[in-house]
Specification:
Strand content: 25-35%
Bound molecules: flavin-adenine dinucleotide
CATH superfamily of the largest domain: FAD/NAD(P)-binding domain
Number of helices: 9
Helix content: 25-40%
Structural class: alpha/beta
Distance between the termini: 45 Å
Number of strands: 17
Length: 369
C-alpha cells in the first residue's frame, strides 16, 4: 500500500492532523495507523480556552468552568476568569467524531500496530503486525518511551457518582493537603455535576506508584471532605514526561507528546498539540513537511530551570506553586498555562522563584550550554 503521508497513532495529534489535512481538501493520499478504537480511549483532556474559541470543540466538551483553585492546608487561591474557561474534552468523543468525519474522506484508517519503520529508497516502509505500508512522509505520534530517571507526572483518577451533592463549584487544580512522602503530590478534581465528581491523585517524581496507592489517596481525601460515593463510573491513568523528549530517527517526523508538545513544567499538552498540528497542516499545504517548533526556546529553558529547582528543593515546591498562582490574575494564569505569555507575566512568575536556587540553576544551565 503506497501513500504520500502516513500518520502513526490516531490519538490527539494524529487525528487532529488528519482532520486538518482533510478540511484543507488535500489531494494527498493519506493513511492513519492505529491499533485501538476511539471509543475505548478513557481520558479527560483539559486545557484553558478563550471563550470565543469554545465552539470549535463544542461537541466533545464534557465540562467547562470559570473558576479554579490551588490550595494547601492553610491557603486557597481562587481564580475567576471572565475571558477564559477551564475546559474538559472527552477524549473518546473527540476522537470518535474525527474518525466519523474522516469516514467520508479519502483518508484511510488502518486498525493495526506499527512494529518497525525503515528507509527504502526515498520512501519509508512501515511494518505493522498485519500490513506493510509505504509512504513518502511519516508522522509518528506513538507515546514516547520514558527512560528511568526522567521526572514524570503520574496519576490515577476516578469519576464517582456521589450519594449526595458535593457543593464544590470550582475546579480543584491542585490541593496539596495530602501525603507528600512519595514526591510532590496533589489532588485534582473536576465537578462535572452536582453528584458527579472526578478525583485524581497526581504525583511529580521519578518513581511510579502502584494503582492502589493513588486509590487510597483519593479515598482518604474524599473521607476528609465527607464525600461518599454510590459507584465508580470510570477511571483513567497516565504517565507524562516532565523532562525533554528527543527522538532522532532520520526522516521520521515526530508529533504530539512524542514530538515535544508537552509543557515540561505542567504536563499540559492539549493546547500545544492543537497549535503544532494546525501549523504543520499549513506547512504541508505549502509542500513543507517539517514539524514546526512547538515550544519556544525560552519557555523550554525556563521550564527546565523550574523543574530542576523543584527537584533540588522539594521543601519549597508547594509554596512555589501557591505563590506563582497568587501572583497572577486568572486570565494571566490561563495565558501562562497555554503559552500565550507576555514579558510582564513571565516577570511575575520569575519574581516568585526563590532567588538563590533559581540563580544557581540558571548559571549551571548556561554553563552546560
Ligand atoms: C489519561 C491521560 C490524561 C491526560 N490529560 C491531559 C489533560 O488534561 N490536558 C493535557 O493537556 N494533556 C493531558 N494528557 C497528556 C496527553 O499526553 C495529551 O493530551 C495527548 O493525549 C497526547 O496526544 P498524542 O497524540 O501525542 O498521544 P496520544 O493521544 O496518546 O496518541 C498516541 C496514539 O498512538 C497509538 N499507538 C500506540 N502504539 C502504537 C503502535 N505501535 N502503532 C500505531 N499506533 C500506536 C495509541 O493507541 C494512541 O492512540 C493526558 C494524558 C493521559 C494519558
Amino acid at each position: 500500500m503506497n501513500f504520500d503521508i502516513a500518520i502513526i497513532g490516531a490519538g490527539n495529534a494524529g487525528l487532529s492532523l488528519a482532520r486538518n489535512l482533510f478540511r484543507d481538501q488535500t489531494k494527498k493520499k493519506i493513511v492513519v495507523i492505529e491499533p485501538e478504537l476511539p471509543e475505548n480511549k478513557v481520558a479527560n483532556w483539559c486545557t484553558w480556552m478563550h471563550k470565543d474559541n469554545l465552539s470549535i470543540f463544542k461537541n466533545s466538551i464534557k465540562g467547562s468552568w470559570e473558576d479554579w483553585t490551588v490550595s494547601n492546608k492553610t491557603q486557597k487561591i481562587i481564580h475567576s476568569s471572565s475571558s477564559y474557561k477551564y475546559v474538559c474534552i472527552n477524549a473518546s468523543m473527540y476522537l470518535s467524531q474525527i474518525e466519523n468525519e474522516l469516514n467520508n474522506s479519502n483518508i484511510l484508517i488502518i486498525r493495526d500496530a506499527v512494529v518497525e519503520i525503515s528507509k527504502k529508497n526515498n520512501r519509508k516502509e512501515i511494518i505493522c503486525k498485519n500490513n506493510i505500508v509505504s509512504a513518502c512522509h511519516v508522522y509518528d505520534s506513538r507515546p514516547p518511551k520514558l527512560n528511568a530517571g526522567l521526572l514524570r507526572q503520574h496519576f490515577y483518577g476516578i469519576e464517582f457518582e456521589l450519594t449526595e451533592a458535593h457543593h464544590i463549584d470550582s475546579v480543584i487544580l491542585m490541593d496539596f493537603d495530602v501525603d507528600q512522602y512519595n514526591g510532590l503530590h496533589f489532588i485534582y478534581a473536576l465537578p462535572f455535576s452536582e453528584r458527579k465528581l472526578f478525583v485524581e491523585s497526581t504525583v511529580i517524581s521519578k518513581e511510579l506508584n502502584q494503582v492502589e496507592w493513588y486509590e487510597d489517596q483519593i479515598k482518604l481525601w474524599m473521607k476528609n471532605k465527607n464525600l461518599n460515593y454510590l459507584k465508580k463510573l470510570s477511571s483513567e491513568k497516565g504517565v507524562i514526561s516532565q523532562g525533554k523528549i528527543e527522538y532522532k530517527n532520520k526522516g521520521i517526523h515526530c508529533i504530539g507528546a512524542r514530538g515535544g508538545a508537552v509543557r515540561m513544567s505542567s504536563g499540559y499538552a492539549f493546547h500545544n498539540i492543537q497549535s503544532q498540528v494546525g501549523e504543520l497542516a499549513n506547512n504541508i499545504r505549502n509542500e513543507c513537511y517539517d514539524v514546526p517548533v512547538t515550544m519556544n526556546k525560552f519557555v523550554t529553558f525556563m521550564d527546565e530551570i523550574f523543574n530542576k529547582v523543584l527537584i533540588n528543593n522539594p521543601q519549597i515546591a508547594i509554596d512555589l506553586f501557591l505563590n506563582t498562582s497568587k501572583s497572577l490574575s486568572a486570565d494571566e494564569f490561563a495565558r501562562f498555562m497555554t503559552n500565550t505569555t507576555s514579558f510582564n507575566i513571565w516577570s511575575k512568575v520569575i519574581a516568585q522563584m526563590p532567588k538563590k536556587p533559581f540563580i544557581e540553576q540558571i548559571l549551571k544551565s548556561i554553563k552546560r550550554g
